Amino acid sequence: MEMHQLEYVLAVAKYHNFTRAAEEVKTSQSSLSQQISKLEDELGASLFVRTTRSVELSPAGAEFVIHAERIMAEVVDARRCVYGYVSFEKGDLRVGIIPIAGHYRIPNLISSFKKNFPMVQLSLWERQCCELLDMLNNYDIDAAFVHQLCDNNHMHCIPLVTDYMVILTNKSHPLASKKTVSLEELQDEDFIIPPPTSGYNHDFQEACHKANFKPRIILTCSSVKTIIGLVREGIGIAALPSGVSFMDWGFGTKNLILTPKINSTIYLVTKNKDLFPTLREFIRFTARWSKKQTNTDHFKFIPVKLTIAGRKLKPQAAEMNE
What we know:
single chain; alpha/beta; Arc Repressor Mutant, subunit A; D-Maltodextrin-Binding Protein, domain 2; two-stranded antiparallel sheet; 15 strands; 39% helix
């Protein structure tokens, strides 16, 4: 069994077509077919059910693909780890961010890291929390800034920023005369909140459940600007983190302190083992950057503990330049 054979099997499983699979792995269709047949002979089982119209995985093939994907992911990590030791300053780094990351100075962190390590090939992926955690679990990204703890034993969550949620209304809303509002007072309100894949959606609905009511959600939206615009137009009210809501400068809207508080935290999430050197340096850099940040009235930075899976990350690079 050879590595390229696993790659060929995965390509066919992805496209259900030998021609497209051959194009993906940059080989001829005949060579791809021969190598898969050779592997099937070695295993003593057919991995695919071939018809004139399509190619489908056999039961044995479906099981094989699970292991092949895991093996190929480990190979990619192994290569990147070795390349990183040659020069961790020239590695690749794929980072996921939630849409509101810009409100918490994450762009400044990314920019500072890029200025200090210009040779690192850095790519950013903006998604909601659940989507980013799935991407991290599937090795599609290396780290993610999310607002949601995960119970995956293979991931490590590093608290970075703490905040709390507020209620946003337009200035003509009956509640706008208040400074604070309780959850119980909001049972009959129409809500506009982030989508179900967002950690903020999860936290808000969980808080409402504890208050013994189900919020009346009329719209979900992933764009903060759109949510604020809809609130300003009087369609409904919104539950947003204070670091986001207060940046609207109050034009046509009013922020109400919510009681009891719904606290929120932004985490830097990574795998808890086999961290390649470039990723380890990014974590260390984030810790140093965090210490230099000044807290605001609405959100605060948390001292980062450089311990993952019980092991302390040792210093490697010089102090960053700002």
